[in-house]
Amino acid sequence: ISNMEEKFSRLIFIPIAAVIFLMIGYQYVCPADSNTCNFRGHEKGLVQQRLPAFDSLYSEPEPDEDFPAKITSKFNFTERDLDRHVDFNIRGDDVMVFLHIQKTGGTTFGRHLVKNIQLEQPCDCMSGQRKCTCHRPGKAESWLFSRFSTGWSCGLHADWTELTSCVPVVMNKKDKKNAQKSKK
């Protein structure tokens, strides 16, 4: 009898494990907040079978001609937070320090920062190289401290405390080294 129970439990386990695997895979490929898996065709498809009350949650509001377009966000940022202006003096001593927090899209953002930032002198990224050169206009000083410009100079995924003590030391060493090179 125990052999029959063992076979039965295996027969039940395999389909249940397959269904769980497919559900997890579907959530990974088609997360709830994305439009990556749109089942809506010309006719009413699977997505249209939900209750009409939920349609208002997922639809964009109609634009109102009397009011200017307003930034809508699903996060709790105020308009002042989103529309702030920070003065960054690339010709002075300002240094942009990128604090990479694991599993938050930091690698993607770091690449975006060195490739797409709109400054007077953006980073120079050569294909095939891991690090980009982010020098100030007319100087051999770096204005960006990140994994993609200086490497992991303060250690892998350095936190705020490590960066505040490490960045000035590393930047001063680089500035002295560059000053010595230019004197020669």
Automatic annotation (TrEMBL):
Functional summary from the UniProt entry: 6-O-sulfation enzyme which catalyzes the transfer of sulfate from 3'-phosphoadenosine 5'-phosphosulfate (PAPS) to position 6 of the N-sulfoglucosamine residue (GlcNS) of heparan sulfate.
TM region positions: 12-29
Protein name stated in the entry: Heparan-sulfate 6-O-sulfotransferase
Organism: Goodea atripinnis
Chief localisation class: membrane
EC top class, as a word: transferase
Membrane topology: Single-pass type II membrane protein
Family: Belongs to the sulfotransferase 6 family.
Sorted UniProt keywords: Glycoprotein, Membrane, Signal-anchor, Transferase, Transmembrane, Transmembrane helix
Subcellular location(s) per record: Membrane
Pfam families named among the record's database cross-references: Sulfotransfer_2 (PF03567)
Lineage: Eukaryota, Metazoa, Chordata, Craniata, Vertebrata
EC number(s) stated in the UniProt entry for this protein: 2.8.2.-
Reactions this protein catalyses: alpha-D-glucosaminyl-[heparan sulfate](n) + 3'-phosphoadenylyl sulfate = 6-sulfo-alpha-D-glucosaminyl-[heparan sulfate](n) + adenosine 3',5'-bisphosphate + H(+)
